[in-house]
Write a structure and sequence with these properties.
Layout: E1 19-26, E2 29-32, H1 42-50, E3 57-64, E4 69-72, H2 74-87, H3 94-104
Antiparallel strand pairs: 1-2, 1-3, 3-4
Helix pairs in contact: 2-3
């Protein structure tokens, strides 16, 4: 007899790999993009970003349920997008600029404490 807390696995046995999903923001709200299971690898997500599949990406999350882990991989994806654009000698596409800048941590606005006292 099974324990009362047991639930069946929803992970397909033949697809034991890490899945990456993109959270995209629209005026009406944020959504996790539905995608074909064959397009959930990291390369497909990065190529989808560069090809304009996501309009305003906010976050990329990777997870592997068979290994029991999940992680926000947005910074890694942002660095890879920037690297590929640099290699192609082109700017980061306008729809990815905010995502890349937010997750790369290159640019931070700073507010100086006021009042500034001159001595």
């Amino acid at each position: 007899m099974r324990e009362s807390g047991w639930t069946p696995s929803i992970v397909p046995n033949d697809r034991d790999h890490t899945i990456y999903l993109v959270l995209d923001s629209y005026k009406s709200g944020s959504v996790w993009h539905q995608t074909d299971v064959d397009r959930t690898d990291l390369e497909a997500v990065i190529m989808g970003m560069l090809e304009g599949r996501y309009q305003n990406p906010v976050r990329v999350v990777g997870f592997n349920t068979s290994e029991k882990w999940s992680e926000d991989v947005s910074a890694d994806v942002a660095h890879e997008v920037r690297r590929r654009c640099d290699l192609q000698l082109r700017d980061v596409p306008f729809y990815l600029e905010e995502f890349v800048e937010r997750h790369e941590g290159r640019y931070h606005d700073m507010q100086l404490p006021l009042p500034i006292r001159l001595v």
